[in-house]
Structures are given as structure tokens and as C-alpha cells.
Amino acid sequence: MSTAPDKKRAERPIRPSRRMAFAEQELRLISALVLLIGLGLFLALPFVLSIGSVVFLPLTTAIILTILLSPLADRLSGWGLPNVVASLLALLFFLLIVMFAFAVILQPAATLIDELPQMAEQVGQRFAELQEQFAWLAAANERFAEMMGQSGGQQVVLAGPSVFQQLAVATPSVILEILLTFLMAFFMIEARVRLRRHLLFDRASYGTSIKAARVMREVQDRVAAYILTVAWINLGVGVIVALGAWLLGVEAPLMWGGLAALLNFIPYIGPLAMMALLTLFGIGTADTLLIGLIPAAAYLGLHTVESNIVTPSILGARFTMNPVMILIAFSYFSWIWGVFGALLSVPILLMLTAFFDHVGRPNLVGFVFGEPLFATKLMALGADDDSAQSTHG
Hints:
Elements: H1 3-11, H2 16-51, H3 53-78, H4 83-112, H5 116-133, H6 135-147, H7 163-190, H8 192-201, H9 206-248, H10 253-263, H11 269-285, H12 289-292, H13 294-315, H14 323-337, H15 339-359, H16 364-368, H17 378-392
Helix pairs in contact: 2-3, 2-14, 2-17, 3-4, 3-7, 3-9, 3-15, 4-7, 4-10, 5-11, 8-9, 9-10, 9-13, 9-15, 10-11, 11-13, 14-15
């Protein structure tokens, strides 16, 4: 007798609320899988990129150079030059800038190498004077160590390879990576027009083509505008540092200006390194400790004004990034590729930020508390399904 109601219940259509619940559960399951895969890639990627740095570091650098130099190649092509010639001239222009920057820095630095022993001896004298002034602190430390029962044991130091041996081993791989970088950059710049056509016209739908074009344009504009703007700001910092070093009577003012401009490309860590170099150089060359600290103090004041007033007012809100994300990207890529990773960290972060602005940023915190991982139009889709079902009914 209960077969008729069961048959009616089985034939009864699923209510929209239940269908929405099933869709939400399915979406949350897929989002959890995507989140786990993304976390696994984030943890495994450093080891893959570090082991394959000979391939991945030149490729990443070439991509960033392509984004930076493509507008210049487009401008040269607009003047009637062939695409190959325009791409080659854009790359040569970048090479000339890099060679000029290194010539400004390395040539005066070579003359200061002979003075390093004298500077190191003077720095040792200054620290010895400070140690004499704080001798009571060292005595208290020794007394505390005796009370704790600690004794100074002998340490065995193994001799490692010298600096020249390390340079001799690393030079061939560095030359190979530089050649690969510029070759890849040239072919990428030369193929930029074909790549744009492929992204625009080889898509399945018109909406996808428009979205791909917007993503590509936003990534290129944001990264290129950021690097060029920061380059002009850092050039101004370098000029001011060079003039200040000249006025203070510091040797090789052009070298210090070039170092300040280059290190300013590395957020937070670069200016700290510059301050450390100026401090050691000032202490090693000045007559007194206070006079030796003047160059570092002047640079600290300049960097404070530049980082808190000049750069934010010029870059604006478009390039404003979370300092925590900058430090995470800096430590992440420095761990993988060292100094080159530190230089590439901010452009890579800009590329990812521009990409996720169009695709959608994952809602990691909200996902833990039950919200969708990505912004969806699930309710609108459910309403469309309900209206379609009512029209068919």
C-alpha cells in the first residue's frame, strides 16, 4: 500500500533549495581540491625552480624583459623599422644601460680595492675603542658565563674554497644563463605580435579573447610602468647620493650614486645594505666615529623622504602593495635564486597581482569559515535555472 506514495515522492522534482545545496557542496569540494593543489605547488615550486635555475631563471628574466621592452619595440616598429631590427635595438638599448651602470660602479670600485686593508684596520681601531668603552659589559658577560659553568672550548674551522675559486667555478654557468636570458628575450620580443594575435583570435569565444587581451595589456602596462617609474625615482636618488658624496668629500661619488640607485630596486633590504656599506666606509675613512656616521645618516634621511613621500605620491594607489606580501615575495624568490630572485621579486608579484585582479583573487580566510574560495554567481545561476524550469513547466 505504500508503493503509490513512494512512487509519487520519487517522481517529485528536486526543490531549488536542495539543488542549490548540492551545487554549493560540489563547488566547495572542487575549491578544496584546488586549494590543496595550489598549496602543494607553492611548497614544491622552490625546489623545482632552484634545481632547474639554469632554465627557469633565464626564462623568468626574459619574460620580464619582454614585458619591459615590448613598448619600446612597438614604438620603433611604428617608425617603420622591421620587427626584427626593432626588437634587436630595444634589447641593445637595455644592454647599453646595464653596461653603463656597471661601468660607473665597478671602475671606481676597482680603485678602492687597494685601500681595503687600510680601511679594515681603521674600522678595527674604531671598534677597539668602542670595546674599551664598553669593557664593563664584556666583564659582566664573562662573569655570567663563569657562573653558568660555561668554558671556552676550542673550535675547529675547516678551510673552504677561496673567493677566486668560487668565482672560477660560477663564471661559466653565469655566462650561460646570461646568454640564455638575452636570447630568449630577443625571440620573445620578436614574437610579441604573433603572441597577441594568438591570444586574441585563437580563442573559442569572443568574451575569452577580450579577457585575455585585457589581462595581457594590464600585466604589461603595470609591470612596465612600475619598473620605468621606479627606475626614474632611483636615478634621482643616485644623483642626489652622488652629489652628497661629492659635497662631503667621499671618494668615488659616482660609484656610491650608482650603488644607491641599483640597491634601491630591492625593497627594504637594498637600502639597509646601502646604509651598512656607507657606515663601514665612513668609519674606515673618517678621523672620528661621529664624522664617519654622517654619510649613512644623510642617506637615511634621504631614503625616509623618498620612501614615505616621493615614491607613494608618484606611484599612487595603483601600485600600492601590501608590505607583508612584498617581504614574502622577497624572501621566497631570494631563497630560490639569491640576489637575482630579490631583484625579480617585485615584478613577479606585480604580474601575479595583475593576473589575479582579472581572474579573481582566492578568498582564503573566508573559505576557512565556509565562504566560497572564489567569487561566484551561484544564486544567479540558481535563479536562472528556476526561471527556466518554470517556463518549461
